[in-house]
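Teaching assistant's notes for section 4

Start the section by putting this record on the projector. Ask students to predict, before seeing the second block, whether Sensor histidine kinase will look compact or extended. Collect guesses on the board.
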Amino acid sequence: MASLLQRVRALGDPTYLVAQPGQHRALRFLALILIGQRMSYLVLAGVNATNPAAMSFRSQVLNGVLLSVAVLWTMVFVFFAWKRGWFPRWMVWADIALSCVLLGVVTANCPPGVELTSMNWSPKHALATAALIGAMLPGRQAVFASLIPMLGYVVALTEQVGPDARLFPGLVGHLNGCVWFALLLFFMRHYLCRQSKALDDAVAQRVAVERDRARFEERIDHHRQLHDTVLATLTAIARGGLDHRQEQVRRRCAKDAEYVRRLILEDRSERAAGLGEELTALIREAEEAGLRVHYMHGEIPGAVPSRVVAAFVGATREALNNVLKHSGADQAWVTIAHEDGALVVRVVDRGEGFDQERGALGFGLRWSVRERMVEIGGELELFSMPGNGTSVELRWSRQPAGRIEATLDDTGLVEQPRG
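Reveal the predicted structure now:
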């Protein structure tokens, strides 16, 4: 019962069939059409059988038994469509045999003169059989198999009524219907299966492109991380800002070496920690490098996506590296705030600063900071003046507002309206 309820819920989920292969979706769609066709004919047969004003069959009991058999056989179709999404080949031949039996027995059980009316529901079942043949069998087999119920209908009518010229229009109409039902379902199946295969191939190609793009973006991220960690450490040592003989410097070098080792081994198993924990660890690194950091934070949202956390941490790391390398200050202030639905991280120093109108921006500020924020739909706001320090503000919101976005070029900070 639990499995049945799960299947019912899955059918209401628009992603249920999308997750299946294209051919599976096409066949399941055709199965629903075939079952619906059969049910529509059985409903009409049931209405005629229970209508007191209609002419009675020669044996109402026999008609009830035959109708029950047809209903149970349709439930077998429902079972296979539900479990497998399509029908086994043997069901075609079993359905042909049942149609031939119904054509003979139901036609013989009809009162004289109504063999070509809706009271004789067996030809409708034969139409469903023709549709099943066209949907399941290959071309030559379908042509051969379609002749069997057609011949059964001709034999049933001639045995019951005889060679009457008045039967000719109705007989031709039924045979014409069988042919077209078989043809339509034959071409429908082949068209849908081919289209679904083409769609699956296109999706596979798109997935391959996205995978290559993800690998490229990952390499770019690795380059940024190397620039912000290993290269920053080596640059500081080379300029004399760090003494490699100090214990904290050796620990920093060991941590950078471990990061490079993870890149080589493609170890992606570590889960990203929360933003607060990541920034705390980052500030500890900056303090080990000789920068005093005043860390203040208010309420930090807990459900921040991992890619957003990674972007904030990477951008903040580069901002602190810039304080160490360029500002001439030995202190920095890092603040986290949740303002007007936006997550904001500020890195402020009271160092030398620079002229935004004249000073060219380096790789770190343009790529390690700005591009990281752009990729997550965030913003960078930069404020700096000579002798008055620098403020780097990183801002991200789940629903970006139509506000001014700061963009950087090679000459300074340019404000452009968003959207």
